[in-house]
Amino acid sequence: MINGFLLKGYGGFYYVYAEDRVWECSLRGRFRVKDQEFLPGDRVNILPEEEEEENKATIEYVEPRRNVLTRPAIANVDQAILVFAMTSPKPDLNLLDRLLIQVTDAGIEPILVFTKLDKYKEDALNDGSEGHAITDVYRKIGYDVFEVSSETGQGIDQIAVRLTNKISVLAGPSGAGKSSLFNALSPGKKLKTGQISLKSKRGRHTTRHVELMVCAGGLVADTPGFSSLFLPEMKRAELTDCFPEFAIRRRLCRFNSCLHDKEPNCAIKAALETGEISPERYEHYLIFLKEVIEAERKY
Ligand SMILES: Nc1nc2c(ncn2[C@@H]2O[C@H](COP(=O)(O)OP(=O)(O)OP(=O)(O)O)[C@@H](O)[C@H]2O)c(=O)[nH]1
Ligand SMILES: [Zn+2]
Fold first, then answer.
1. Residue ranges of the EngC GTPase domain (predicted)?
2. Residue span of the structural domain in which 24 resides
3. For all residues of the chain together, what is the average pLDDT?
């Protein structure tokens, strides 16, 4: 018996990644798992058929799931890689903060990857600007932040080690460099069954269909669904928990129920005054707070 991960189900077969190859699996055999819904990311035990070179096997057992992401439907997700360009296009930080809330609410570890470092440095040289203000804001909050160039390869190795043996979902706006990053992470690797490029996959499936792809010794899913602009259903007081730099200070607000908006003696607004909290993050918080309150009224 071999342990593996389900990449996708397609045409009555299940494609399982195990021992560095993809197996075409069926549910035949006396251990047939009936009425079992499989999801990409499911840990399965497979039994190879006699002619092993054909990469055919049967699924014998599905392990209990550690977690399930619903949109897109993937099991056992370890982390979310949020991809934004440092420049061209200028990162939409409202969207980044929205994605951070969705990911945090789903209980998944976010990793921030800022791409096009080469272009950013070139621009900085040309217009004399300096520093990494954007990335510093998120690093200071405590997020895992990486700056990379898929063009020069700078920083790619550090991302690769974070992917190994993990299930990751990839999210970010169009043009941020997700495909380029994916390719830079899988240099010269021959595509095998079940492994297709990010681009061709997107072309084929415009729906919520997901599959995991092998990348840097781990499994990665491209997740258009995660780029949804809607915040998850939550109570207004819960929004503070999605802003780590707010959450650590909320105890110091005068009112327990402080929403850090119009209330007096608010520790978050005090930290905003001293520059400890980024004005942009606070601005997004207020926008999201309004949306959450409006959504609250609807249910
Ligand atoms: N200079 C530079 N250009 C990059 C880098 N990464 C991506 N690009 C360019 O940015 C453009 C968009 O990159 P893609 O990888 O296609 O972006 P994507 O996020 O997959 O975009 P969608 O498929 O629309 O979601 C392409 O022209 C890339 O060549 C980088 O690190 N440096
Ligand atoms: Zn407050």
1. 75-227
2. 2-64
3. 87
Residue at which a domain ends, from 30, 64, 98:
64
225-237, pLDDT tens digit by residue? 565 677 888 999 9
Report CA 208 to chain centroid distance, whole Å.
Answer: 15
Q: Is 266 annotated as a binding residue?
A: yes
| Pocket residue to mutate for ligand 1, from 122, 178, 180, 183, most atoms within 8 A of Cβ | 180
ipTM of the complex: 0.98
Whether 69 is covered by a domain: the verdict is no
Q: Specify whether 104 is located in the same domain as 207.
A: yes
- Are 223 and 240 members of one domain? no
CA angle at residue 41 from 51 to 77, to 5 degrees? 155
Q: 3-state DSSP call for residue 268? A: helix
**Which pTM was predicted?**
0.89
> CA nearest 59: which of 85, 37, 35, 28?
28
Residue 25's CATH number: 2.40.50.140
